[in-house]
Design goal:
The protein is mainly α and 157 residues long. The chain contains five helices and no strands. The two termini are 63 Å apart.
Amino acid sequence: MFNDIGALELVTIVVLAILVFGPDKLPKVIQDVTGVVRKIRAFSDSAKQDIRSELGPEFKDFEFEDLNPKAFIRKQLGENEDLKEIRSSFDLRKELNDVTDAVNSKETDAAAPAAGPSAAPGATGPDLLKKPAAQAAELGAPPGGSRGSARFDADAT
């Protein structure tokens, strides 16, 4: 119940208890609290025994922790042999690595023809990273372009 209380929290609780109840009444309060906790545990244990006796001998190995849905599902799935076989045959890391390799190979295949300098200028479309003057020189047109020709503006698209 109190497994997650650290040293700092425990010291804080003790200091608050001393401030609230005072050093005179604190031992009596601690005795009262431990007595109440013992009574609650005894009541709980007797209730569990009564329920087990009423259920009969077929439920002698019944655990009340199984009433927690998470524990019940974990127990039922853990006993299933088919599920264990499926878990052992499925390697998530291998599947993710295969998908990653497939995606990376598509990216490198698509980038390889465009990155090469020997690619045909009109085959893949205009290179948006080059300056318009460099494209015009590559295509054999004058760098300023003619008045009637449409100029390409990479920022406009």
